[in-house]
Amino acid sequence: MGTLIKGGNAFVPTVPLRVAVRGGVDVAALLLTERGRVRGDADIVFHGAPVHASGAVRLVEGEDGTAWLETGLTAAEEEISRVLVVASVEAGALRDVAGLSVEAFAPDGTSVARYDMTDAGGETAMVLAELYRRAGGWKFRAVGQGYLDGLEGLATDHGVDVAAGPPAPEHTPAAAPLDTAVPAPARIPVQPPAGAPPAPAPVPFQPPVQASVQASVQASVPAAPDAPLPAPPPVPDWTFGAVFEPHTRSGPGNDVITVEGLPPGPVVVELAVDSDGYTGLWPLNRFNKEGSSLVNSTQRNFRGRVLTLVPGNGRLRLKLRADGPWQMRVLPLAAARRLTEDRLECEGPDVLLHTGGTADAAFHYRGTDNFIIHLYELAEHDDPTSLPDRGRSAVNEIGRRRETVPLPEGPLIVHLQRADGPWRARLKDLRPHSGRPHGGGVAKVSEPRGAQGRLRRGRR
Known about the structure:
This protein folds into two domains: 3-181, Sandwich (Lipoxygenase-1); 222-428, Sandwich (Jelly Rolls), CATH 2.60.120.380. The chain has one helix at residues 150-156; strands at residues 3-4, 9-12, 17-22, 26-32, 44-45, 57-61, 67-71, 82-88, 101-105, 111-116, 125-134, 137-147, 175-177, 221-224, 227-228, 247-251, 255-259, 265-273, 279-283, 295-297, 303-310, 316-322, 326-331, 337-338, 344-347, 350-354, 359-365, 370-377, 392-398, 401-407, 412-419, 422-428. The protein is globular, with a radius of gyration of 22 Å. It has a six-stranded mixed sheet, with no helix packed on it. By secondary structure, it is mostly beta strands. It contains one helix and 32 strands.
């Protein structure tokens, strides 16, 4: 088996696998349901609770900075559809870790899947890979999704209570794969290896919270089968627009989607389609007439986020052209990704938020089609149910590009309206915010501050 690239996947044999995580990092495993959430702290395997109750995952310390996850996939309960392999560091960032990789081995020592992390940035926690059910078997996917706010952000994205001392209110972000259309294979009970120690009582997963978030924003993360669309936690200093619980829809192909009861105003629509064909998305008005195209892509397995407006009646209708299974989420603006001085690496259209002072945004686009960016300045915009007229076009080019866009101080929406390919972005020459009041209810904003969340090992 060759080394996989980010987003790549391959079937693995449904036999006991040993998964090596190299680089001297802290390692954990999260066992997730089809909703992309743990059922509780018992579904987290880490140093404080090294054995899952089912016997499906066991964490074993190795030598030379290698940790091992011993898996028995047939022992996983039918409710469990994914096993995330998580790496984190207590100090510094993952870009400082040499030789960070994850590799799965069959019982005879044959390597069946491997992923080398070569482009880590300022993240302190990362989903390196996942094992997930597919077509009656299991697949290994190279994920490489990092979290600047560490295990706190990663944990809340998957339904884990985070607390420093007393438990904090639960967030409900999740990742739900489209593989749910495939029946899960029947569970085959597997006994733990002879002489294996009994599973200890789990220690609660408790990364300390060091940055407040809007508790009312609860985001679930849908994902198409072979490339998840993880969502970072809400931006704590962004208050333009209403917050609400995300609405998730899914289907097998072309459809008209209706979401009722939304607050009027701008929202983020996140879409994941498993298809080799065309993907298109249009808003529908009250006369069922199509508005301007939101998505117009021939990209394989489309993933992306777009910006649209909910009308005053709170009823969002979208026409979808999808040559395959899909999942969609409607999210508040506060759940959009944040532009910072750390490198953000994504693929497809996206909606980004800038809350700092004046800055230059450096983009490196590696696609071959249109690359279009619009800016929505909210400083003088007092109506949170609308957006400034269309927004200012900052980039409108075709093919691979390196562009640097000067940004005014926030609050600012940076909408990558077209981006059929991978891209990365980061802020340069970021200045402190002036602190002047802004429209839309946005007051003085703070500079980015990453939460230093991590999992307490329970062995201090």
